[in-house]
Amino acid sequence: MEILFRNVRELVERAEAENKLISEIMIEQEMIITERNREEIMNQMFRNLEVMEAAVERGLNGVQSVTGLTGGDAVLMQNYIASGKGLSGDFILDAVAKAVATNEVNAAMGTICATPTAGSAGVVPGTLFAVKNKLHPTKEEMVRFLFTAGAFGQVVANNAMISGAAGGCQAEVGSAAAMAAAAITEMAGGSPQQSAHAFSISLKNMLGLVCDPVAGLVEVPCVKRNAMGAANAMVSADMALAGIESRIPTDEVIDAMYRIGKTMPVALRETAQGGLAATPTGRWLEKKIFGSAAPANG
Amino acid sequence: MKFTSVFDIIGPVMIGPSSSHTAGAARIGRVARDLFGKQPTWAKIHLYGSFAETYKGHGTDVAIIGGLLDYDTFDERIKTSFDEAARLGLTFEFITETGSVDHPNTARIVIGDGDSEMSMVGISIGGGSIEITELNDFPLRMSGGMSAILVVHDDRAGVVANVAVSLAHHSINIGHMEVSRKERGNMALMVIEVDQNISTEILEEIELLPNITKVTRIKN
């Protein structure tokens, strides 16, 4: 079974040598691995895209989690954009609103598509459905956005980690932001190398981010971290498209993320023992929700 | 490579809120159900590490029970799986463990009915992907994402070859295979990940081979 890429260097080299998009290399790899034809694979990704779109729409209409900790912020952001008072630029704020919408649906135990995880599921669709309004992609180009994001995500998953329990939030929202940055860059017409730079710029700015969910719930601060992940992805893509390059090669950035994750204390890796989870308010919320604090770490 | 398909990364489609603690947990439960081959009537679920610390908020408990009821990651019934378990006569207990484990998201599932009992250890490695690391005290390494058969057999010469020949006759390609045993000459376990789903006929054929005790499968 032929493996077309094991790291980002091989992925970019292959795409540039064969004059193909990164999404195309990912589709070809999937055809080899699963022995399925292109149509089946494209259709499966299209179904995931539909799930993402439905989640964004549901979130923009307003949802509440069972605990009441999260929900309704996507609506607030959407109304703010409509007021015309936004300072950061409406495309970024739209990406933020849609990322928040997805994660609010996730927190409410609604149906989402993990990208790469559920806790970070807002970033990729949030940015995709925001840039859609500027770049006017075809359906196929939207599906390709997800394959490009998936190609970079696969390298991270195999060479580092994508779970908060293993590597902190840098591995989840950090990976998602970097995957989205690379995909936005391709959709906007950037080269494979520029996608890699966008990825690196994004992930470098997420390094060290801990996973410290209040009461162990994928709500606080996860929803707002997806908002910032989306904003980070948009700015990183713009930087790469402007011609700005990462001094540190992408695979070395991924390796740095891995090493940081490995040395991150357990209290900061999805155990609800440290960081924001351990603040007085975090503990108070935990008690309010569960009636008692989580047991001390054994 | 642990993650081979792009749909491990862009996917699964699932009920929130956590891919590792909800979707992965449902998959671990469902593999246990698959391997047991029938609806258990009781379950004892031991949770370790981050699973033990945060299972309530992530719905890890309803997800594992949902998996034991054969629900997929996107099945809306996961949210009310406890009610459904009560209706179907599945009693269960969650036990949070403080012992250290290799992976932060580990669950040991012990299930049974009046006739038989099974124990399995599963880990949730991120993004909804899982691995099975132990079955009835046999150490093993199996991803939940591929079709597989598990063969409990006597540790004798030729048993592995017989099973391989049987699969070859049916044009089933082996993707990954490992054999483990607790002690030499005693009972052994073969784990064979394959590229195609295995029919009941093939299972029965393998079960009739000499020195084979039990054959179970996981469908993809």
Automatic annotation (TrEMBL), chain A:
Pathway per its UniProt entry is: Carbohydrate biosynthesis; gluconeogenesis
InterPro entries associated with the record: Fe-S_L-Ser, Ser_deHydtase-like_asu, Ser_deHydtase_asu
Q: Which domain of life is it from?
A: Bacteria
One Pfam family linked to the record: SDH_alpha
The EC number(s) given in the record are 4.3.1.17
User: Which Gene Ontology molecular function entries are recorded, alphabetically?
Assistant: 4 iron, 4 sulfur cluster binding; L-serine ammonia-lyase activity; metal ion binding
What gene does the UniProt entry assign to this protein? sdaAA
**Keyword annotations of the record:** 4Fe-4S, Gluconeogenesis, Iron, Iron-sulfur, Lyase, Metal-binding
Give the UniProt record's GO annotations in the biological process aspect.
gluconeogenesis
Name of protein: L-serine dehydratase
Cofactor(s) in the UniProt record: [4Fe-4S] cluster
What PANTHER family does the annotation carry? L-SERINE DEHYDRATASE, L-SERINE DEHYDRATASE 1
Q: Where is the Serine dehydratase-like alpha subunit domain?
A: 19-277
- Annotated catalysed reactions: L-serine = pyruvate + NH4(+)
TrEMBL record, chain B:
Which part of the chain is the ACT domain? 148-220
**Record Pfam families:** ACT, SDH_beta
A GO term (biological process) for this protein? gluconeogenesis
Query: Has the keyword Lyase been applied to this entry?
Result: yes
**What cofactor does this one take?**
[4Fe-4S] cluster
Reaction equations catalysed: L-serine = pyruvate + NH4(+)
Pathway(s) of this molecule = Carbohydrate biosynthesis; gluconeogenesis
Question: In Gene Ontology terms, what is one molecular function of this protein?
Answer: L-serine ammonia-lyase activity
Q: Enumerate the UniProt keywords alphabetically.
A: 4Fe-4S, Gluconeogenesis, Iron, Iron-sulfur, Lyase, Metal-binding
Its family remark reads: Belongs to the iron-sulfur dependent L-serine dehydratase family.
Name recorded for this polypeptide = L-serine deaminase
Q: What is the lineage of its organism?
A: Bacteria, Bacillati, Bacillota, Bacilli, Bacillales
